[in-house]
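The methods section describes the discrete structure representation at length, but only in general terms. Since the whole study asks how a given chain folds, the encoding of that fold should be made plain. An entry of this sort, consisting of the sequence and the corresponding backbone structure tokens, reads as follows:

. . .
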Amino acid sequence: MDHRHGRPRLVTRRASALYLGAALMLLFALACPRPIDAQQASVPSTLPGTWRHDGDLSRSVRLIDAAFAPSIASLPELIQGFARSRIHDDMPPPERVIVSVEGARVRVSLDSSRAAVIDGPLGGTARTTGVDDGTRVTQRLSGGWLEIRYLGEGSELLQLFSTEPDGAHMHVDYTVTSPRLVAPVRYRLEYVRGS
């Protein structure tokens, strides 16, 4: 018993532990920004605009084929052709990309044989057209750049849009993960500012 304050020492130790725990939680909260705070930043000013595919589209089709080739080779030979056809149908390289920003709302139009429009707030679920039903699409900032995430059929597609400092060249980095792939598939498509 702590005779100076007339209460058991155990209560004093317990109170100290509670104060220490609360202080540590406060420090952790201040040191680690909440995910929503990370989305309060804006899309870099070089990203909005109209972008045209840089070079020959057939070269990009071959690039995509090569990226998926190891996973297709692991499939039974009977369905390899079907898998290639599905990739050509579902993932054609966009000929034109249009990015527009209004506050925290971002709209991305991907013009290809399978056109798609993704429109929504950063950090939230986007409204889409040209995307398979049941696919959840979100937009967020990743490393300061725009990332669109598609989740559906147990698979995930990430598109990361970034530009060179001159604002005249844009890269779209693709990462596809799925239990049906032997490893994540990654490739990059190149764009130049256009009209």
In short: Residues 7-39 have pLDDT under 50 and may be disordered. The CA atoms of residues 177 and 184 lie 5 Å apart. Strands lie at 49-53, 96-102, 105-111, 116-121, 127-129, 136-142, 145-152, 155-163, 169-177, 185-193. The longest strand covers residues 155-163.
